[in-house]
């Protein structure tokens, strides 16, 4: 395959990625229009803030999942690792009496450690990502229950927290504008994730591994190291998710976490990241996360039963994956014809 063919392939991938983001954004606007016409309560300020706040946790988890899926991997543990991180925050600041800053750092470190274990299991032990992260999902859930004694850990009413409640992290930061801090944390995390993906060697190698892992290895790249780093980064975002959800609930709820991984993966896929690896954007993931939140919120406002909400969401994910498959087939055909 000559240089012109490779250039054609790259141009095709860039064009398809841009098209996918445009389609996702168009879908988001379409949902706003449909639900606005269907209910007068949808476009109210309180409901918009509710959508923004509901997107924060899933959005942060999806950011980490984006890096993993770009490498053609999967991480089923992001939800329960988030819960374990929140539990560790509760233990550190409530039971051990540490300052809140150290407690939050400990929660993020817990997520990083879990992600590193995932990465080493996948890269060094050669366990398939689905199995490795499934095991971590179960282990993190069990540890959350064991460490907490199967009871919620409340952040208020203890010497370490009294006078500076965790929920203050979600207060408004702009005078006169009731926008929760967590929304700014989400967008800040997205900016950092975008810079890592687009401007650092970690991001470049993530794309390279997802596009062709063996070719990347033969070019002299330490694939095992960078793959472990990607999973560790996903764990850090899960730890940040634990900070946000703990702040929202002002407690660590050890029974939470299951199901969040599916919403995060759905947001990533809807946003245009290919499950085959080698393609994806942070902007697309954020759009996908908002699509999930708007869809859930709109269906709830229309009093659609929760079981049917799950059916609709599942259908949208299937359509998104099928569209990705068609797009990849078209790219491969164009690349072949160019060669």
From TrEMBL:
It comes from the Bacteria. It comes from Candidatus Segetimicrobium genomatis. The chain crosses the membrane at residues 22-43, 49-69, 76-94, 100-120, 127-147, 182-207, 228-249, 282-302. It is found in: Cell membrane. GO terms for molecular function: transmembrane transporter activity. InterPro entries: ABC_transp_permease (IPR001851). It is a multi-pass membrane protein. Its main location: membrane. Keywords: Cell membrane, Membrane, Transmembrane, Transmembrane helix. This is ABC transporter permease. PANTHER family: ABC TRANSPORTER PERMEASE PROTEIN YPHD-RELATED-RELATED (PTHR32196), RIBOSE IMPORT PERMEASE PROTEIN RBSC (PTHR32196:SF72). CDD domains: TM_PBP1_transp_AraH_like. GO terms for cellular component: plasma membrane.
